[in-house]
Automatic annotation (TrEMBL):
This is histidine kinase. It comes from Rhizobium grahamii CCGE 502. CDD domains: HisKA. Residues 7-124, 400-516 form the Response regulatory domain. The lineage of its organism: Bacteria, Pseudomonadati, Pseudomonadota, Alphaproteobacteria, Hyphomicrobiales. GO terms for molecular function: phosphorelay sensor kinase activity. Residues 160-377 form the Histidine kinase domain. The keyword Phosphoprotein applies. Gene3D superfamilies: 1.10.287.130, 3.40.50.2300, Histidine kinase-like ATPase, C-terminal domain. It is an enzyme of class 2 (transferase).
Length: 516
């Protein structure tokens, strides 16, 4: 970091003496302040921090000793080191008077150049060290403040996380209790729909947490390709539409007729815009207005999401992108989030070479989020990239599925799902028994958990591949480990497919259908 120049104060009533001192002391990083009288010197001391004052003793009006005494009486200048410059040979009384006034040394005229420079260099370096210590102190204070703020945000995050997790868990618990007491309840369909919706919300919370962690550690992989901004926005609107409609918001879109192309991961870009739309939905009172638009501006594609919600204070607009940051007014809203969504959005936008800012909305008290991404030329051939997997899987034939999972409840529910779509299943809860049970059951496919005790899923998979009877059997990893490196490890161990828990029925059916 660049430090301010060090200042010396030169005080002498003769201009030629000041010029001589200036020539002797001049060096890089040193600023020389010159005064022809004690009064001028005091004015300069009020404006500047001085590392050393070289003061002529015999000056008309206020002499050097009187100036030194006045300096000692002022809090700003009382600690400035003083070197007296005198033409005579000071006796003991004079020296005592000078030291009593605050002198650290006397320099006699004619001045010996090397001695003056050597002594001046000491005070220059001492002041530089004080500057460095002050900068280090300020840096430590800033870090301490940042750590304190981060700790406060963490505490708020943990409290909010507990609240946000309890929200979807409550209807799940209550719904199970009602169905357990009365399985044939007239409200059974509505209860199941509510439970399904809340479970999806819970999965999204966990996915967001994992995404933030992966992005922060640089472990996220973007599958970049040319993509139309219009497709990104349409996919995001489709994903956010249920929440927008539930809050009775009016959504307006303004998309250009000509395609706008950027290079990016279609799913991640859609996630960015969907997060902004969901944010607008949460913090806009019912029957509000949300607008989404896109246009080309120079070399950038500009995406804007605006709302008529409760807004963000001016001093918080740059801070809302920090992890775990919550706006105080937003904490009081029942739908307040974890403080990770906007941080994730900013990091994903940055990974795409863009940037995002929050501004006041053009109408009302709401907020506008503006995303800018670099434009690219349109590709010669394009294909749809935002289509999800088909949910209309047709079961061609029943399979015998060996389910290996140490969690009895998880294994049992997976079995029920398989049975629901017409497959036969057999459960194993210990990886060491999987191969032996397979010889009895003769499965067509193995659903295998990776995080097994005693013998993990990788070892079990390798054991199947080493067995002549099962070396070609399809093996599907069904696990809570879902990062790219986990999928690579699974493939290396011999898995054919990798499913991340919780696995929904459509996803599982799609994989099994590809096997049949």
């Amino acid at each position: 970091m660049l430090m301010d120049p060090v200042s010396f104060l030169l005080v002498d009533d003769l201009e030629e003496n000041l010029i001589s001192l200036e020539a002797l002391l001049r060096r890089e990083g040193l600023k020389l302040l010159k005064a022809r009288s004690g009064d001028e010197a005091l004015e300069l001391l009020l404006k500047h921090d001085v590392a050393l004052a070289l003061i002529d003793v015999q000056m008309p009006g206020m002499n050097g000793f009187e100036l030194a005494e006045l300096m000692r009486g002022n809090e700003r200048s009382r600690r400035v080191p003083i070197m007296f410059v005198t033409a005579g040979s000071p006796d003991g009384t004079w020296r005592f008077q000078g030291y009593e006034a605050g002198a650290v040394d006397f320099i006699q005229k004619p001045i010996e150049t090397d001695i003056l420079r050597s002594k001046a260099d000491v005070f220059f370096e001492l002041y530089r060290q004080r500057q460095q210590l002050a900068m280090q102190r300020d840096e430590l204070e800033a870090r301490a403040k940042a750590l304190k703020e981060a700790d406060q945000r963490k505490d708020i995050f943990l409290a909010t996380l507990a609240h946000e997790l309890r929200n979807p868990l409550t209807p799940l618990r209550h719904g199970l209790d009602v169905l357990k007491r009365n399985p044939a309840s007239t409200e059974a369909d509505r209860i199941r729909a509510t439970m399904d919706r809340q479970l999806s919300h819970l999965v999204r919370l966990i996915d967001d947490l994992l995404d933030v962690s992966r992005v922060s550690q640089g472990k996220i992989e973007l599958r970049k390709e040319p993509v139309k901004v219009q497709d990104v926005l349409n996919a995001a609107v489709e994903a956010s539409r249920p929440a927008i409609d539930a809050a009775k918001h009016a959504l307006s879109t303004d998309l250009p007729s000509e395609p706008i192309w950027v290079e990016g991961d279609p799913a991640r870009l859609s996630q960015v815009v969907a997060n902004l739309l969901n944010n607008a939905t949460k913090y806009t009172p019912d029957n509000g207005q949300i607008a989404i638009s896109a246009h080309a501006d120079g070399t950038d594609a500009v995406i804007t999401v605006s709302d008529t919600g409760i807004g963000i204070p001016d001093d918080m607009r740059s801070k809302v992108f920090q992890l775990f940051t919550q706006v105080d007014d937003h904490l009081n809203r029942s739908q307040g989030g974890l403080g990770i969504g906007l941080s994730l959005v900013q990091q994903l936008v940055t990974l795409h070479g863009g940037h995002i800012v929050a501004t006041a909305a053009p109408v009302g008290n709401g907020t506008s989020f503006i995303v800018r991404l670099p434009l690219v030329a349109a590709p010669f051939e394009t294909s749809a990239t935002l289509c999800g997997p088909s949910s209309g899987t047709v079961l061609e034939s029943a399979l015998k599925v060996l389910v290996v999972d140490d969690n009895v409840d998880v294994a049992r529910v997976v079995g029920w799902m398989l049975e629901e779509v017409g497959h036969e299943y057999h459960l194993v809860h210990d990886g060491r028994e999987a191969l032996q049970e397979a010889r009895r059951f003769h499965p067509d496919v193995v659903l295998l958990d990776i995080g097994l005790p005693h013998m993990d899923g990788y070892e079990v998979c390798r054991a199947f591949r080493a067995d002549h009877e099962f070396k070609d059997i399809p093996i599907v990893a069904q696990t809570g480990w879902g990062q790219s490196k986990d999928k690579a490890l699974a493939a290396a161990a011999g898995f054919n497919h990798h499913l991340t828990k919780p696995v929904n029925l459509e996803e599982l059916s799609g994989v099994l259908a590809s096997i049949t």
